[in-house]
Amino acid sequence: MKVDILDLSFVPFITEEQIRHRIEEISALLSAKYSQEQPIFLGMLSGAFVFMSDIIRAYPHDCEVAFVKYSSYDGTQSTGTLSESLGVKEEVKDRVVILIEDIIDTGFTLSKFLPRLRSYHPKEVVVVSLLTKSTALSHDVQIDHVGFDIPDKFVVGYGLDYNGVGRNLKDIYVLSDEAE
Ligand code: IMP
Ligand code: MG
User: What is the Cα Rg of the chain in Å?
Assistant: First the structure.
């Protein structure tokens, strides 16, 4: 069923159930590899907070949770500049850091953020993104686990917003003008 958010209409794209299933698969890979590490799950606010809350609860071993906040988006467009409102802390030194992203679009945000994160000397950085738009990717960035690779279309829901709205939708929706 179609949903209207501000001035745009969106149609269903990825269901809560499909997301849950994929999270279980990714979590199994992470827990097989990092069970002895007490990793820090580092969420990129704001979009990743819903994915973060599900992925940590699917992870069955000791772990810690922290957040950073950087933004590059205005409406449905990337602005090309990155602003920091909550940065990395020293606590990541010598630790396995599992970076949790909602979506990697052009890769600009990660291309700026990953060097900053590495400058704090984590033991290992693992990049997990619920979504990627691989056809839009224009920066060479590390990506280790992806929930779903999607076409270059604007999506909302499950933490992702359109101008601040739509994060509370349980499923992911795509802009209807662009839907096939
Ligand atoms: P990038 O820097 O171009 O990789 O964009 C990454 C950020 O842009 C994501 O963390 C989102 O906040 C935002 N973004 C990119 N595509 C979408 C989308 O389709 N819907 C909502 N936010 C998006
Ligand atoms: Mg974001």
Answer: 16
Who surrounds ion ligand 2 at CB < 5 A? 47
Shortest-distance atom of ligand 1 to CA 137 = 4
How many CB atoms within 10 Å of residue 179?
15
Please tell me the residue having the least CA distance from ligand 1 atom 5. Answer: 105
Residue 105 is a catalytic residue: yes
0.90 cut: is pTM over it? yes
Q: What is the DSSP letter of 176?
A: G
pLDDT tens for 89-108 read: 879 999 999 999 999 999 99
DSSP codes, 74-120: ETTEEEEEEEEEE---GGGTTSEEEEEEEEESSSHHHHHHHHHHHTT
